[in-house]
Amino acid sequence: MQVSPPKELSPYIKHYLFLDSKETDIQKLRLFSDGNTGIVFSLKNKLISDINNYKVKNYLPSSFLYGQLNGFKEIYSDKEISLVIVVFQPNGIYQLLGIPANEFQDSIISIDAILGLDTLILQEQLSEQNNEKKIALLNQFFRKLANKKSIPNQLLINSSLDFILANKGLFSVKQLVEYTGYTERHLERKFKECIGLNPKKFGNVIRLHYFLKLLKDKSEATNLTTISYDAGFSDQSHLIKEFRKHTGISPREYLFNTGKLANNLIKTPSSVLL
């Protein structure tokens, strides 16, 4: 289930996701970038970051923040899961915390190390409530957090994001420089600080997810090559190369995957034996 935040939180939070699975066999989940960062509350059982051949499990924190991803991360589960995921706007974490977003790049960090013990209380409260009350608790928590922060000037970043999203990620840095009036060096510094990726890498993620939208909505008569061109890829091989770099699988494998928990969180076959 996906739920939008109230209007006053929409500059920071894109949506809340509620994901549940009753499977108790080993599951391998693949998380890849969608241009946003997020916080995951695992309410029933901890997720696992790695399982080695000696069956030693390295558990993730019960609640954690993930930064912008350069590629993808594998996460495992061997018990029922109940996840609440707070998906932030591309610059939402920076606006809320005032911490440069590139400090979280490719990282998974226990949320109490960032936001303090209040998050442990929130975790406990979320585990005891139905979804409606969970949403109310999340809104209350993030309203309080937003009220404590002075919002940094995001005019340049917001304008740049509007430009990139309007062009579906297909643009040159020169075009962005001309659009904003700022130098390439300044734009790169601000993007890394506020979003965690430089403009071109962020644009590549947006273009990939525009392709995924076209893929999801395609008719039976539409082939992959046509969608590749429509999404701005020079040819199908270019698309497949970029797709594998971000997700580790091919577009067809993604299309026929029946374990999509979210656009950027999918179940993949596991060769790990418990």
How many strands, which pairing sense, and closed or not: the largest β-sheet? 6 strands, antiparallel
Strand order of the largest sheet: 1-2-9-4-7-10
- What name is given to the CATH topology of the largest domain? Jelly Rolls
Q: Could you say which overall geometry the principal axes of the C-alpha atoms support?
A: globular
CATH-scheme architecture of the largest domain: Sandwich
Number of helices: 11
What is the C-level CATH assignment of the largest domain?
Mainly Beta
How many strands in all? 12
Low confidence ranges? none
| Number of discrete domains | 2
Structure write-up:
The protein has 274 residues and is an alpha+beta fold. The protein has two domains: 2-150, Jelly Rolls (Sandwich); 155-255, Orthogonal Bundle (Arc Repressor Mutant, subunit A), CATH 1.10.10.60. It is 41% helix and 21% strand. The protein has helices spanning 92-97, 111-115, 118-127, 131-148, 155-166, 173-180, 184-194, 199-217, 224-230, 236-247, 251-255; strands at 2-3, 13-21, 27-32, 38-42, 48-51, 57-59, 63-66, 72-77, 81-88, 108-110, 260-262, 265-268. A six-stranded antiparallel β-sheet has the order 1-2-9-4-7-10. Strands 8-3-12-11 form a four-stranded antiparallel β-sheet. α3 packs antiparallel against α4 (131-148). The radius of gyration is 19 Å and the shape is globular. The mean pLDDT is 88.
